[in-house]
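In the design runs reported in the main text, the only information available to the sequence generator was the tokenized backbone. The following block is the verbatim input for one such run; it is reproduced so that readers can re-run the procedure and compare outputs position by position.
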């Protein structure tokens, strides 16, 4: 079972999607992007367990863990789409993830303007994550268009 999963993954030497990627960029796909998604999953676990003061300040108590869970589920789904080369799944998940992170940034900025806090730093980190996410979304759009052109 594990050998079949490995053969279907981006880490297999003959992964069909990696053929189009220049060798110097392959570590980004095999290490960087998966680590990015795993970090967002860990971030969401902390958000579910501890919540976010910035989000709780402006919403009902149940919304903070729900938003964190949305980030986690979409990051996990995006990771699966990346690892198993299901680009439409990854693209859809990245859009949901981007929406959740954008909403989180809005709450952080609102919190930072209401009071001085670490929300400004958190907002800057979340915006950085959104930039990485946006770059990957543009890459995915090109890949999906290329695949549909090959069919």
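Verbatim output:
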């Amino acid at each position: 079972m594990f050998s079949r999963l490995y053969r279907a993954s981006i880490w297999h030497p003959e992964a069909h999607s990696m053929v189009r990627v220049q060798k110097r960029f392959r570590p980004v796909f095999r290490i960087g992007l998966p680590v990015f998604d795993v970090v967002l999953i860990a971030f969401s676990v902390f958000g579910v367990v501890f919540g976010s003061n910035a989000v709780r300040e402006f919403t009902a108590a149940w919304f903070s863990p729900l938003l964190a869970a949305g980030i986690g589920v979409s990051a996990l789904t995006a990771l699966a789409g990346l690892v198993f080369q299901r680009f439409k799944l990854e693209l859809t998940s990245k859009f949901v993830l981007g929406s959740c992170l954008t909403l989180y940034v809005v709450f952080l900025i609102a919190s930072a303007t209401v009071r001085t806090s670490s929300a400004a730093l958190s907002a800057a980190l979340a915006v950085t994550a959104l930039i990485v996410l946006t770059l990957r979304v543009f890459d995915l759009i090109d890949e999906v268009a290329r695949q549909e052109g090959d069919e």
